[in-house]
Design a protein that fits this description.
It is built from twelve helices and twelve strands. By secondary structure, the protein is α/β, with parallel strands linked by helices. 40% of the residues are buried.
């Protein structure tokens, strides 16, 4: 593991506490995110991992309040940026922090970029709105940004439309836009999913380099634990809308505590040894959002299930090494320095 942690100093930049987001389906409120709690400090890269549909993207969109008011609704919790609750901000206050203090790199750059505007116009728009720069200053800043993300001939790229560049270049443009106003935090939602392995490595290296140069914190949403191992300082593991484990990256790979995390890590291929073996898998399927169990959401798939798992949702146990786990195993054994029932 070539992981190189960035020391995070001072109070948390972002504090998410007991966040819950529901979607209205007919007359029912379906929980997509439940009791999500975590912090991000300045300069950190935090990985958010889990199976498709576990709530990773909804969590990020809830932080910036980008979900449509109907059918989505944040029903509980707080999201504090330097102490100010984003969930209580006015529309004008939101417009001021989006792009300037918190930026987002979306999963599909082709659908996220405006097909009717040149790439240069889209980068310059954010710069001019948030910094008050002139057209000339914004253009020079855009060229510098494209050069920093290794776009060849950035002056020519400014005049192109999204469909005129490759997928890898579109993603680099999205990263350039995210860093345009040197935000405090970037939410990167599967930024390398549609890219081939070589371009993926280049994009991740680029984001890591820009983070170290600017001090910007990054929440990296991904399903790739290999990417997390190489780039992140801490990891959040989501399952069925909840963060079931949070740990420093080295600690998570060395000593995973939640049975779901152990299952994810056991399913990773290894180059050690010459014997070919079938990779283990976690049996069963995640629960359907419209039919959530009353107890632990992982109980039906867990090899260590106990009677209380089926009727009581586990609290959050916090350990001295910075790990936090939602699992009845640790409450029964009395492990962890503190716990809650939220």
């Amino acid at each position: 593991m070539n992981h190189q942690a960035v020391a995070a100093q001072g109070p948390p930049l972002l504090e998410v506490a007991n966040l819950a987001t529901h979607f209205r389906v007919g007359t029912r409120a379906v929980p997509a995110v439940r009791n999500v709690t975590f912090e991000i400090r300045r300069g950190e890269m935090v990985g958010l991992v889990g199976e498709s549909g576990c709530g990773k993207s909804v969590t990020a969109l809830s932080i910036l309040r980008l979900l449509p008011d109907a059918p989505a609704c944040v029903v509980e919790g707080s999201v504090r940026l330097d102490g100010a609750d984003i969930l209580q901000m006015t529309r004008q206050e939101l417009l001021d922090i989006r792009g300037r203090r918190i930026a987002m790199v979306f999963q599909d750059p082709f659908s996220s970029l405006n097909p009717t505007m040149t790439l240069g116009a889209q980068i310059m728009e954010a710069i001019r709105i948030h910094t008050g720069a002139s057209h000339r200053e914004a253009r020079q800043r855009a060229i510098s940004l494209l050069r920093s993300v290794r776009i060849p001939d950035p002056e020519q790229c400014l005049r192109r439309y999204p469909h005129e560049v490759s997928g890898g270049q579109r993603q680099r443009v999205m990263i350039a836009m995210a860093f345009a106003c040197q935000p405090d935090l970037i939410l990167a939602d599967e930024p390398t999913t549609a890219l081939d392995v070589t371009v993926q490595a280049q994009v991740l290296a680029l984001m890591t380099e820009l983070r170290r140069e600017t001090g910007t914190a990054i929440l990296l949403i991904t399903h790739d634990l290999g990417v997390v191992a190489e780039t992140c300082d801490r990891v959040l593991v989501m399952y069925a809308g909840s963060v079931v484990e949070e740990a420093p990256v080295d600690e998570l790979f060395r000593n995973p505590r939640h049975p779901y995390t152990r299952g994810l890590l056991a399913s990773l291929p290894s180059l050690r040894g010459s014997r070919i073996r079938r990779l283990p898998s976690i049996p069963g399927q995640p629960p359907i959002l419209t039919d959530q169990p009353s107890g632990c959401a992982f109980a039906e798939r867990c090899s260590e299930v106990m009677p209380e798992c089926r009727h009581a949702e586990p609290g959050r146990a916090v350990f001295a090494d910075g790990t936090a786990v939602r699992c009845h195993l640790y409450r029964r054994e009395g492990q962890g320095s503190s716990s809650d029932t939220g």
